[in-house]
Amino acid sequence: METLVNDLRRSFQTGKTMPYEWRVAQMEGILRLMNEREKEIMEALWTDLAKPRTEAYLHEISLSKAGCKFALKELKNWMKPEKVPSLIATFSSTAQIVPEPLGVVLVISAWNYPFALTIDPLIGAVAAGNAMVLKPSEVAPSTSAFFAKFLPQYVDTSCIQVVEGGVTETTELLEQKWDKIFYTGSGRVGRIVMAAAAKHLTPVALELGGKCPVVFDSDVNLKVAVKRMAIGKWGCNNGQACIAPDYIITTKSFAPKLVDALKETLKEFYGENPLESADLSRIVSSNHFRRLTDFLDEENIPEKIVHGGGRDEKHLKIAPTVLLDVPHDSLIMKDEIFGPLLPIITVEKLEDSFDLINSRPKPLAAYLFSKNKRLEEKFVQKVSAGGILINDVALHVANPHLPFGGVGESGTGAYHGKFSFDAFSHKKAVLSRGYATEMRIRARYPPYTHHKQIILRRVIDGSFIALFLGLFGLHRD
Amino acid sequence: MGVLGLESVVAEARTVFESGKTRSFEWRKSQLEALLRLLQEKEDEMCKVLKQDLGKHRVEAYRDEVGALKKTLDNALLNLKKWMSPEPVSLPLIAFPTVAEIVSEPLGVVLVFSSWNFPLGIALEPLIGAIASGNAAVLKPSELAPATSALLASEVPKYLDFEAIKVIQGGPQVAEQLLELKWDKIFFTGSARVGRIVMTAAAKHLTPVTLELGGKCPAIFDSLKSARDKKVAVERLAGGKWGSCLGQACIGIDYLLVEEKYAATLVELLKGVIKKFFSNSEHLARIVNKQHFQRLCDLLQDRSVAASIVHGGSVNPEKLFIEPTILLDPPLDAEIMTEEIFGPLLPIITLKKIEDSVEFIRARPKPLVIYGFTNDEKLRKRIVEETSSGCILFNDALIQYVCDTIPFGGVGQSGFGQYHGKFSFDNFSNRKPVARRSFILELSFRYPPWNAKKFQLIRHICRFDYFSFVLCLLGLKRHNYRSSVEVW
User: Keyword Lyase, does the record have it (chain B) (predicted)?
Assistant: First the structure.
C-alpha cells in the first residue's frame, strides 16, 4: 500500500492533476463509463442488492451522471480564485482565495448505493485536482469488482486507483498518510477512520447515518404525503439508505388514519405479496437480515406489528413492516434500522416530537409533513439535523445546490455540487501588498514612541479620519 | 477541580444551550458587546498580564491582541445579523415547486484550547466565533501563560453569561479530562503533537475538530530594484520575525531564502534594522519560560550551527531573553532547520537562484504561511501554483492575521479548519439545508409498480429533457429502452 500511495504522490507532485484539461478529461471519462457500461452497472447492482432497475437507474446512475455533468459545467467557475476585499488595517493590499487540491485522498464508500457513493466523491476529488484511491465496499462485491475492472479503462490510472478488499485492506490503507479521507458508512467505523487519520493530522469527512425521523401532522394531503414517505422509505433500497425515514412520530389521534393510508399505499406499490415484488431490493447480507429480524423478534415487539412482518430468509427478503407504539427503549428504536421496518411513535401533541428527536443523536435528515407554517418554522428552528425537508423525503440528495452531510453522530463535512469540490480543496488565502504606502513614521516598529502608539491605535481601530489626523500630528490625547 | 467537578460545569453549559438561550440574536449581541466592554475596561490589566507572561510591550500587546480583538468584535457585531440569516439557494426547474435555503445553526457546546504565545488573542478569537454562532463554550487557556489565564478566568464570568461561557484553568491533566467528555466541536491551537492527541480523543465521540498548528514558515527574499522598496521589505521582514512575541508566533517568519549573491547585503540591511528598531529589549517580548529558553539555546549548541551565526547569539537566562540572531546557511539537517524554531533565531538559507525556493519549500511539510518579498510576477505565480500553505502573503508579514475577509488556517501538517471573520462563524455552525415542497404538483411516475413507461419518463426528466417528457406523458413518444436486465 505504501508503494501505491508513494506512486500516487509522485504523480500528484508532477502537477499533472492541476490543469483544467486533466480534470475535465477524467470527468468525461467517468461520464463515458456510465454511458457505455450502464448494462454492467445495473447487473452489478442487481447482483449485489437485487435493486429494481428503475431505482438503480434513478438513484445511482442518473444522479451520478447529473452530478458529473454539473461539475463539468461549473468547474471553470469553481477553479477561479475569489477576490475579496481587504480592510484598512491592511490598507493597500489585494486579497483573494485560491482553491488548490489537498493532494492524495482516500475515498471509502458504502454498500447500499455502492455505485453512486463511490462516483460522487470521486467526481469531487477529481474536480478539485487530487490524486486518489477508491476503496469500494466489499459488502457489494460485484460493484466493487466493476470499479476495479472498468474504471481504469476510463481514467488516468497514474492518479486514480481502485483498491478492493475488506477489513484488512482498509486497515492497511488507513495506516498510510493521506491528505484527506472521505468515508461513507457507520458511526462505529467512522470513529476508527478518524482515529487513524489523527495520527497523520489528516482531515476527514464522515458521511454517517442516524435515525431519520418523520413528523407527520394530521393537516396534510394524506394520500400524497404517505406516498412520498413510502417511496422514500421502501423505494430507497428497501429502507437501507442513510436518508430513508427511520421512524415516524405522529399524534395518538392521527395514528390509525396514518396506518390505514400506509397499508393502502404499500398494497398499491408492492401488491398483495410484497416478498415477491420485483420492485423491492433485498437485504444485502444474511448478517443484516438477522440484525433486522432480531428487531422484530425482540420481546413485546411482535404484537406491535400492524402491517407486514413477512420474511424470506432464503432470498434475504423482508416485507415492508409497520409497527405502532414500540417502547422507546426497544432495540428497533435504539439503533439505526436501515431496513424495511417502520415504527410509528405516538405523542399527545406534535410539538412533543421536537424534544423526542433532540433527545437522540442528531440524524442525517429530519422530515416534517405539515401545512402548518408555524409548526414548520419551529421544526426548522428546533431540530438539528444534517438536512431538513418539509413535505417530502430524501429528495434533497438530488440537488447539487444543497450541501449534503451530517452533524454530530451523523457525521461531519458536506458534499454534492460545489460542496464536493470544496470538500477536497484547500482554500488558500493570497494577500498582496505594495511598498508604496509605508508610513514614514514607521508606527509598526519599536521603539514605540507615544506618537507611534496613537497612529497604531487609529489604524487598528479602523477609523480613517482619526488616522488621517493622527498622521499629521493633529490629535488629542 | 476533579473530573466530576468538570463534568458538572460542562453539563451546566449543555443545559443552558438546550434551553435555547444562546440562539437568539439578542443574546449573541449582548455577549459580544460585553466582551468589547471587557477589552475596553480591562485594557490596562490585559497589557499588564501580557507583560508578565511574555514581556510584551504595551504597544505589541495592544496591536497584536487587544486591538485586534476589538476589530474582530466590531466586525462581528456589524455583520452578525447578516451571518445569521438563511442563505437562499437556487434550484433547477425540475425541483419546482421547491424552495430551499441554508440555515446556520450552532453546533452546541464547544471546547476551545488556546496557546500561550498570544494567550489573550488566541483564546478569545475562537470564542468570538463560537458566541456569534450561538454556541455555549468552554475555554481552557494555556497554563504556560498563567497571568493571562487567571485574568480570563476571573473577568470573563463577570462580563459574560457565566452559565453558558466557562473558563477552566489547568494543565495537561485538566485538558485530558476535558477531552474525555463529549463536545460538539473542539477548536485547538497549539503543537502538532498535542493536536494528534486532541483529534484522537475527539474521534471517540465523532467530534469535529479544527487544528491550528504551526510549521516552519519561510520568507522568500527576492532582489528588489528600488532601494526604498528594499528598505521597507527588510523592515517588514524584521518585524515579521522579531516584532511579534520575539519570533514565538505560528505565523512568524521561521527562516529566509535568498539568492547567495544578495545574502551579504541582506545581512547588513537586517543588522541595520535590528539596531534601529530592536536594540532596546524592553520593546521586545521575552521567551515564555525556561523550558523553551533551553530548547532555543540547545538549537545553537550544534557546533556548525553556532559557527553560522553572523549576528547576535547572546542569551540572558535571568531575563529569559535571546537577542535577535541571524545565522547564515546552518546545516539543513540540524534541528534548527528541521523543527519549527519559535524564537528569535533567523536562519538565512542561500540558493543559487531564487526560483529554487519553490522546490525547497515543496520538499518540506506545508507551512501555515509562505511569505514572498518579490514583485516578480513569474515568481509569484510559481509560488501560488506550485507550493501549498495555509496562506501566502506577498511583500509583508503577519498582517494576514488582522484581515477578516480571508480565511486563517493551515493545511497538511499546519492543521485544518479556518477562522477569522465569517469563517469563525461558519467554523462553529452547522449549515443545515432546508427544502420545502408543497403538495400541489404530484408526479405519479415517481412511484412503483415500475413499468417501462414510467422508467422512460424518469429517464427524460433526469436528462432535463422536458420536451420528450411531455411527449411521452401524452403517449406521443415510444418507450424503446431495452436492457438485458429485464425485470418486468
Answer: no
Compute CA distances B348 → B325, B327, B331, B354, whole Å: 11, 6, 11, 13
Among the partner-chain residues A198, A278, A462, the one whose CB lies closest to the CB of B199 is A198
Q: How far apart are CA A37 and CA B409, in angstroms?
A: 42
Question: What are the b/e assignments for B174-183, b being 16+ CB within 10 Å?
Answer: bbebbbebeb
Which residues of chain B are within 8 Å of residue A269 when distances are taken between CB atoms?
447-449
- B412-446 burial by CB neighbour count: b if 16+ within 10 A, else e? bbbbbbbbbbbbbbbbbbbbbbbbbbbbeeeeebb
Q: In this complex, do B384 and A98 lie within 8 Å of one another by their Cβ atoms?
A: yes
B-chain CB neighbours of A382 within 8 Å are 20
Confirm if A296 and A341 have CB atoms less than 8 A apart. yes
B86-100, B258-272, B308-322, B451-465: least confidently modelled range: B451-465
Distance between CA atoms of residues A396 and A365, nearest Å:
9
Please count the residue pairs, one from chain A and one from chain B, whose beta carbons lie less than 8 angstroms apart.
Answer: 312
pLDDT tens by residue, A283-317: 999 999 999 999 999 999 999 999 999 999 999 99
Contact B455 A39 (CB under 8 A): no
User: How far is the C-alpha of A457 from the C-alpha of A441, rounded, in Å?
Assistant: 14
Say whether B403 is catalytic. Answer: no
Closest CA to A420 of A57, A75, A156: A75
Nearest CB to A53 within list B108, B362, B487: B487
Contacts of B379 in chain A (CB under 8 A): none
pLDDT at B338: 96
Search chain B and give the residue with CA nearest A202. Answer: B412
Is position B47 annotated as part of the catalytic site?
A: no
- B361: its cell numbers: 519549500
Q: Is the peptide bond before B449 cis (omega within 30 degrees of 0)?
A: yes
And the C-alpha cell for A466?
Answer: 482619526
ipTM rounded to 2 decimals? 0.94
The three grid cell numbers given for residue A249, joined into one nine-digit string? 412520530
| B251 contact partners, CB below 8 Å, separation of at least 6 | B217, B368, B369, B391, B397, B398, B400, B401
Q: SS3 of A306, please?
A: strand
Taking the C-alpha atoms of residue A23 and residue A11, their distance in angstroms, rounded to an integer, is 14
Strand order in the sheet with A82-84: A82-84, A93-101, A425-433, B391-394, B369-373, B218-221, B255-259, B345-351, B325-328, B309-311
Residues 6+ apart with CB under 8 A from B187: B110, B111, B112, B113, B126, B130, B209, B210, B212, B417, B419, B427, B428
